[in-house]
Structure formats: C-alpha cells, structure tokens
Predict the 3D structure of the following.
Amino acid sequence: MKFIENKRSREAEAWLKKEIVEQKRRYRKIVAEQEALTPKRDKWIADFLQRIQTRGVHTHYDQMRKVRPEEIPVKPKRKFKVVF
C-alpha cells in the first residue's frame, strides 16, 4: 500500500498543536462537569427506579405495568460513563 506524500507547513503544524491543546482542555472541562453531576445523577437514577416500581411504565398506550424489584439491574462497580 502506498501513501500519498503530504508535507505540512510550519504554520499548519503550529495551528494543529494549538488545536490539540485546546481540544484536550475542552475535553477535561466536560469531564469535570460530568463528574460534578455524579451525586445529582445518582439521585435521578434512584428516583427513576423508585418511580417505575411504584407508578409503573407504559407498556401500550394507556396500559401501565409496575416493575418488580428483581427486574431492576444491579448498579455496576465502575464509574458511570457518559459518552460524548
């Protein structure tokens, strides 16, 4: 397999390095915001799981079914992962 020869100018290389640094900074900021949401997110999930066990979920149009406790998945040991 042959690759196309590609030479970048110094300006392009400098711009690329600057962009990489800025993107990593933005990513770290997003991750920090998501980690700060962890206590709230855990509460939201607990509220949701409680609600579907007491109130139920819609199965069809106006029919609802309560979710039994044994149907609730066990919380994994790993950190909650948010995909961007």
Remarks:
- The first helix runs from residue 10 to 36.
- Residues 27 and 33 are 10 Å apart (CA to CA).
